[in-house]
Amino acid sequence: MKGWLTAALCLYLAAAPLYADTPVPDTAPTKLTDRVYVIQGPRSLPNKTNGSFTNNPVVVLTREGVVVIDPGGSLGAGEMILRQIKKLTKLPVVAVFNSHYHADHWMGNDAFARAYPKAPIYADATMIKAFKGGKGKEWYDRFMGLTEGTIKSTKLVGPTTAIEPGQSVKIGGLTFQTIHPEKSHTEGDLMVQIVEEGALFLSDTCSFKSVGRMDDGSFYGARDAMQVALDTGAPVMIPGHGPSGGREIAQDCANYYNDLLRVVIDRFREGEDQLSMKPKVLEAMSAYQDWREFDTGFGKHLSLSYLEVEEREF
Q1: Is the pTM of this model over 0.85?
Q2: Strand partners, 179
Q3: Nearest to 38 by CA among 195, 199, 186
């Protein structure tokens, strides 16, 4: 009998996956207003030790239930957020919002779909189209690679309900006003204002003092989106990554996009190409050199902004 059990155990271990899902440690919510909390993720890329939890999920308590914006980047991250919600309220989750198609902001959908299958998952209609057209699977596969398979239990669960530009959703006495930049961080971005609470989620169009990814975005669009954010008058701003705060969060991002476009446009009109303008652009942007990933990411920003300026100027 003992030999049979040993053989069976050996067969099981041989067939078992190489990696087990990475547990995501609890991160306590930070209270921003009476009914709005943020669970600030670590400022790192998804990897095999963080369980792909790197973003800023937002938890909003309404009279009817809980609304979550951007539920993390894996099943484990979503389950961690659910644990934090249970510490705040006994009410169920009644809605989820996804801000864009980068996977650190929506792969946690899986946990919420399992726990609350009737809760709608809202997103911009363009984002949903891109997701179904292949962006969802592309980013799902990319994150599986970045985490070396340690989030393998996460299923590909996308948004279910399209939100059109200007549309608001009223839930439990609160108004969730959606703002849809035409193209800023990606095509199909969604910023969400919790009107009565004076709070605005900026999505990844603004990450706190960080030179973030703009491969899928537009510097002109991001600049305009930050002005729209400031025009809302919301006193509380929540970036996609990094610490939340006041209006200075959006203002810093607006200044960065404005300053970068201004100097690249000026140099382009003087007839300089991307290589020759680089020293002058770096000098003009020196106020941002202590921003996160400036050393490694600014060269890409210069290249992308130059191509965008070149296209518009011709």
Answers
A1: yes
A2: 191
A3: 199
User: Which residue is listed with tokens 């809302």?
Assistant: 232
Helix (H) or strand (E) holding 259: helix 248-269
**Residues 158/133, Cβ–Cβ less than 8 Å:** no
Beta carbons within 8 Å of 9's beta carbon, 6+ residues apart = none
Name 67's Cβ contacts closer than 8 Å, sequence gap at least 6. Answer: 59, 60, 93, 94, 95, 96, 97, 171, 172, 174, 176
Q: Do residues 56 and 40 touch, judged by C-beta distance below 8 A?
A: yes
Phi-psi region at 311: left, alpha or beta (left = phi > 0; alpha = psi -120 to 50)? alpha
Q: How far is CA 256 from CA 119, 125, 165, 237, in A?
A: 37, 28, 26, 17
**Tens-place pLDDT, residues 76-89:** 999 999 999 999 99
Amino acid 94: pLDDT: 98
Give the amino acid at 150.
Answer: T
Helix, strand, or coil (residue 187): strand
